[in-house]
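Exercise (ungraded).
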Amino acid sequence: MPTPLIHPTPDSELPIAIETLQSVLSHMLPAQADDGDLYIEHGVSESLALEEGRVKHVSASTHQGMGARVIKGESAGHAYTDRFDHAALMQAGKSARAIAESSQSIAPVSIHQGENRPRALYQAMNPADGVDFMLRKLLLEELDALARKLDPRVVQVFANVSSSFSNIHIIRMDGRHIQDARPLVRLNISVVVEQNGKRETGSAGGGGRFSLTRLTEGDEAKRLVHEAVRLALLNLDAHDTPAGNMPVVLGPGWPGILLHEAIGHGLEGDFNRKGSSVFSDKMGQRIAAKGITVVDDGTIPERRGSLTVDDEGTTTNRTVLIEDGILTGYLMDRQNARLMGMKATGNGRRESYAHPVLPRMTNTFMLAGHDDPNDIISSLDRGIYAVNFGGGQVDITSGKFVFTTSEAYYVENGKIQYPVKGATLIGSGHEVLQKVSMIGSDLQLDPGVGTCGKGGQSVPVGVGLPTIRIDELTVGGTEA
Amino acid sequence: MSTNMKNTTEQQISGQSIQLLEAARKCGAIHADAIAICDTGDSISIRNGMVESVEREDAQGIGLRAFVETPKGLAFATASTSDISESGLNKLAEQVIAMARISEPDPDAVPPVGADHPSAEEMQAWADKHDHTDCGWDLEQAKDAALQCEDIARNYSDLISNSEGADASFGGSRVAYASSDGFVAEYAKASASLSVSVIAGTGEQMQRDYAWHRAFNAADLHSPQQIAEEAASRACKRLNPRSMASGEATVIFEPRIASSMLGHLIGAINGRSVLQQRSFLADSLDQKIFPDFINIEDNPNHPDGLGNRLFDGEGTRCSRNQIITDGKLNTFLADRYVAKRLGMQPTGSASRGLTGDIGIGSSNLIWQPGTKTQAEMISAIGNGVLITELIGFGVNGVTGDYSRGAGGFLIENGMISHPVQGITIAGNLKDMFANIEMIGSDLTWFGSSAMPSIAISGMTIAGE
């Protein structure tokens, strides 16, 4: 686990003159606006990818721009520009104002640093600093060699290391200036194995909001290679997965994607304000079995899903979504919170200045229970024990969600029998947590690999879960 | 080679590409190519008859791929920036060269020199026919279309209980490509789209569905009424779904769902995946992978396709490509590098963003339709499921293993009986391709692909 550090508050220079921003802001905001802001971002990202034993792809990008927003009631105007010249910035403000009816503007504001700035959850420093391209290249080559050494059936190795660093400036309609500086790194290993003409693949990854040195030094990178090779070889021996309704035990950590899909999206403020979620109007009602508590926590230092402040400048929180089975919280940005008479929870997020703000998850997980994980597995007469997953998806209106296994076992009479092929599990978000009958004591968070898509926008997120037993879930295997 | 555009004032972004190539050359690049883009667009969302959001984009960016000579051979790197000032371009060139020097040379690397470029005459003819920067909408017209579309959808039936809104958007993009062998080209595209999503039923019985259409000209869009009625009728028909028994069944994919099969096919015949042994079709070239009556083509110049293009991301001329004839796989898709490695001709399939690896992509994919209507297909299979929704990502491109969440309608005795939801369908794509029993006459365009209904036997359903 990362050592807790005291990170200095980020303090980067605004890439646009203050006078220009003040002028954009006061021309953009109509007198009757409920809210509005400017979001200025300067980001860099770098990526190295190895295949066929060579670091063939080295790439980088620099992106900068400004997003302008005007909010009035249920309406939002959003405009962005990649250009930092005066005319382009003023035009963005004018476009964002298109929702306003009156011509009167707010009184001019003066931009000032906010007080009581929150403690930074990660270091305001490019995570690639101190790990030059050559070091990253050598790391990937070493991981490639390790994978091939581990097993002669490894025929292809893909390794990718990427890093990014974004300086964010949010200027609210009252002139308050809030900053964040966000590092993010990720390492991914994927292998193809072949045996008697049959090919399979396995992958593993990890990362977070910390320096790349955490991945280049120590054994974490090597552990990921072992894991990718283990998964690929396991899949060579996988049997057909049974099809139909059966009990399912989920392992700890990344299987928490269940929570993200089954309930997380359905508890986002926009869907609930509009009444389009199956959880609309269920506040205070039981939506999960007793003993289940689920939180969304954006405040865990250095985690992939964490943020010091969200993209509206609200300090992030630990929001209890479900407490002992009862629905207690929604995830809120400022607009939806205002319209619902609730508090913004620090979940207003945007992929970049070029995207509008939406209520989104950060790190979503279930708190640990008291059951021994081994007892949970051995409780299965006939069912599936699933430990690793690919992606998932949900229809928040019908509540139907899916997630797909990448490491799963068939269990009979309480004993693991054999690995089974990847299969999609399907359930209903408002029912599945009511069918949880055992909760393990082994809560784990995922290794830092989650990306969530909504409205065409991708943001990094985290999930977590202890081992749990779900008494009934539909397993989409091929063996009817 | 180079070409003159109709209107020189609109040609400014190819100038950026040329300027960037020059900066790269000064920094030590032996070969380079550059791509510049400029996108502007507007969109408006209407919900419950009110403006929910207005959005405006103004994006620019430029990307560079540069090759340098290293002691071990030719190496390259890519990078992009949205800062197109002179200092931004110079910084980008320096950055790419520094990165290329540490990149590992690949003896098969193909620098951007000597591709089969289209001629100046071809480019002029293409520009005269295809280039346009205005799709014919302004914000007020887009707003009216969205208002009308949402209003019709909400009032379609008493069963419609809520709206997720209607969106109308329009915009244009300009792209310039230049390579160090002197090829320079620039083109412009514009399009408009209209979509709506509504909810039928209440509480735990809610069902949502949507419809959308996109066209080069707003005048060619499906009418607000057609889009509204499609979305609303679909949402209403989904109400009161049941599960169904687990077991083997024949499924019919309606066109919007069946188009995902084109995606799986293209993913598997991507030459790069074949090289990397990450495709379940890696060993299937010149083999029958579909029944005799299946024909699929990649057509870069089709009057109904939004994926028309004269050249690909490496400046290679695109031409019509018969991917599947009489069920047989004729070709993998290749850029110049993959073609060299696989010992084939490039297929004009290079697709590239501003930075990162060159990808492989198709232009307009067209699955040739059959003769049966969907109703005739339903009648012919007798019992099975009409699939109208798929969710999740349960497809393994290496093995072809397939398992996805699904919804649709039970087919009993040749008729639709009731909606089903919460089931999965599973199989293996190789078997699914081979087990296509029928194709419909209902060819439907979805932007840059066109797909009829298809019926596949032998899928495993997991339900109750």
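Further reading is listed at the end of the chapter. For now, observe: Chain A has a mean pLDDT of 94. The CA atoms of residues 377 and 414 of chain A lie 6 Å apart.
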